[in-house]
Amino acid sequence: MTEPAPQPPPSGNPSEFDRYSAGYNAGMEVGLKRLAGASAALFLEQKLEILLDELRRAGRLRTDPSFRYLDFGCGAGDFLSLVARRGLQWSCEGCDVSRGMLQEARKRWPRDLQSIPLWPIEPNRFPAARFDLISAVCVFHHIPPDQWIESLRRLKDALVPGGWLAVFEHNPWNPATNYVVRRTEIDRNAVLLSPAVARDRLAAAGFGKPRTRFFLFAPPRFKFLWPAEKLLARVPLGGQYVLFAQKDSG
Q1: CA of 234: how far to CAs of 40, 113, 136, 195, 227, in Å?
Q2: 86-119: b (≥16 Cβ within 10 Å) or e
Q3: Domains of the chain, CATH where assigned
Q4: Other CB atoms closer than 10 Å to residue 205's CB: what's the count?
Q5: Confidence of residue 27 (pLDDT cuts 50, 70, 90)
Q6: Helix (H, G, I), strand (E, B) or coil at 149
Q7: In contact, 217 and 36? CB cutoff 8 Å
Q8: What pairs with residue 93 in β-bridges?
Q9: With 185 labelled, which of 20, 23, 62, 83 sits at a CA distance of 20 to 30 A?
Q10: Reading across the β-sheet that carries 91-96, which strands appear in turn?
Q11: Are 100 and 76 in contact (CB under 8 A)?
Q12: CB–CB of 138/114 below 8 Å?
């Protein structure tokens, strides 16, 4: 278990996402997305399997409380709750710009997140050299493009030397992804990052060359196809992609 993260005082400046927090459903109101996955949880389960697979591949998968993990932009806590239920025994934390989303996370997952610190992101208040792994699950397309590099630098500073960052994003090269994003209310101000742009911004923030993996070639409801998608991981047409980048260990 981790010690609680510092809790900054309320800023009085609500996030645009506060109005989506109650009953947040990750865009499942769009018919095509409902058809692809029986629930929003299926999309997240696939991401967790990919994240663990990438950690194994890098030889960095640990299952003990000394492994410190942050879900950056954790929203209503859905991905963080999956990690907690997986039995990995990581020391987990979550943060988000929306206090409403953090409140929703506590309501939605009272058992899974009861001992996990959840804290609001505030300007100039972020831990340094604290985490072995940070995930950003479909977060950066909600951040203004002129803040992408600074946000990535902040995450790099929060990693311990040799720590890993996993950035999951929608793939703008995929027609189905564009269709869903254009029809999802919470994505009305989203700016999708192409894999090339995301790699460029990671490099500008000081990360080494990331490993890129594409997925969501088939609807996630067909779980038996998840292992087969590894064969297509280099094909840049999957509905989403992940960049797995490491902070310099020196």
Answers
A1: 25, 35, 21, 11, 14
A2: eebebbbbbbbbbbbbbebbeebbeebbeebbbb
A3: 20-246 (3.40.50.150)
A4: 20
A5: very low
A6: helix
A7: no
A8: 70
A9: 83
A10: 118-120, 91-96, 68-72, 131-137, 159-170, 240-246, 211-215
A11: no
A12: no
Structure tokens at 141: 């397309």
Spatial CA neighbour of 129 closest among 168, 162, 102 = 162
Strand ranges inside the chain, DSSP E: 68-72, 91-96, 118-120, 131-137, 159-170, 211-215, 240-246
At a CB cut-off of 8 Å and minimum separation 6, what does 31 contact? none
Write out pLDDT tens, residues 90-132.
999 999 999 999 999 999 999 999 999 999 998 878 999 999 9
Q: Encode burial over 212-244: b for 16+ CB neighbours within 10 A, e otherwise.
A: bbbbbbbbbeeeeebeebeeebeeeebbbbbbb
Which segments of the chain does DSSP mark as H helices, in order? Answer: 31-36, 40-57, 78-85, 99-108, 148-158, 175-182, 195-204
Q: Which residues pair with 211 in a beta bridge?
A: 244
Among residues 138, 124, 123, 134, which one has the least CA distance to residue 198? 138
**pLDDT tops 70 at residue 52:** yes
pTM metric for this prediction: 0.89
The total of other beta-carbon atoms located within 10 Å of residue 250's CB is 5
Contact predicate 42/220, CB 8 Å? yes
